């Protein structure tokens, strides 16, 4: 711990076996202007990937890939309602969530709780339209924000 | 601290409104800042304060404050 009680980090994986499978997958950017957002990504050398409409969240999704940088998912609302529109109205364009691949959604959630982290399930596990139907769930983590856990095929 | 008193303190903190007086019939229409975004933040705070976990379907199925009070009680929240 640093002075002031700040954890120093480090890979203490032995205490949480569920985290050993955890891998960063992408971060998502909420936008109300996908054309403008994609212009920025193209300028950085990103290439457009798969896209889909998610009827459950009423949002459009589009993956962007880069040879040397993390994948980015652009997310924009299909209509005017819903949490994403509210977030855009209140906070503007910005990072929406961080996604991790895991072997076991429930096990990872249990491991987060076991670390005494305050985590709330926001969207329960369901097939991800952009990732071949792999199970995906969203959680709000106190002190961090929204995370997405992407399970195995 | 009574459940309602604790819950009222959370509502006042989350919505930054010290005048909120909780009633079981109160809904999101009664609090200007209570939208889908602040609702999940509210539930995160409630979860922590009462030591209970909620599923996504529970989070999204509440109709009013009374539903939330009943849900907390059903989970033994203290």
Automatic annotation (TrEMBL), chain B:
Q: Which Pfam families does the record match to this protein? A: PP-binding
Sequence ranges assigned to domain Carrier in this UniProt record: 1-76
> From which domain of life does this come?
Bacteria
Q: Which InterPro entries match?
A: ACP-like_sf, PP-bd_ACP
The molecule here is called Acyl carrier protein
Species for this entry: Methylobacterium longum
């Amino acid at each position: 711990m640093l002075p002031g009680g700040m954890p120093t980090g480090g890979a203490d994986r032995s205490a949480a076996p569920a985290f050993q499978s955890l891998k960063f997958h992408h971060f998502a950017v909420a936008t109300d202007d996908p054309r403008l957002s994609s212009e920025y990504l193209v300028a950085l050398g990103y290439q457009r990937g798969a896209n889909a409409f998610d009827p459950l969240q009423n949002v459009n999704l589009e993956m962007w890939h880069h040879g040397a940088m993390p994948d980015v998912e652009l997310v924009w609302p299909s209509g005017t309602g819903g949490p994403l529109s509210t977030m855009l109205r209140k906070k503007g364009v910005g990072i929406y969530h961080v996604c991790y691949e895991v072997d076991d959604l429930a096990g990872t959630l249990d491991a987060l709780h076991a670390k005494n982290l305050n985590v709330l399930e926001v969207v329960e596990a369901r097939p991800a339209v952009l990732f071949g139907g792999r199970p995906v769930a969203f959680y709000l983590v106190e002190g961090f924000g929204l995370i997405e856990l992407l399970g195995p095929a | 601290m009574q459940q309602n008193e604790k819950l009222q303190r959370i509502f006042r903190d989350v919505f930054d409104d010290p005048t909120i007086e909780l009633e079981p019939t109160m809904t999101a229409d009664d609090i200007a800042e209570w939208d889908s975004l602040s609702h999940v933040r509210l539930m995160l705070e409630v979860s922590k304060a009462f030591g209970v976990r909620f599923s996504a379907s529970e989070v999204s199925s509440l109709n009013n404050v009374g539903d939330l009070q009943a849900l907390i009680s059903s989970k033994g929240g203290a």
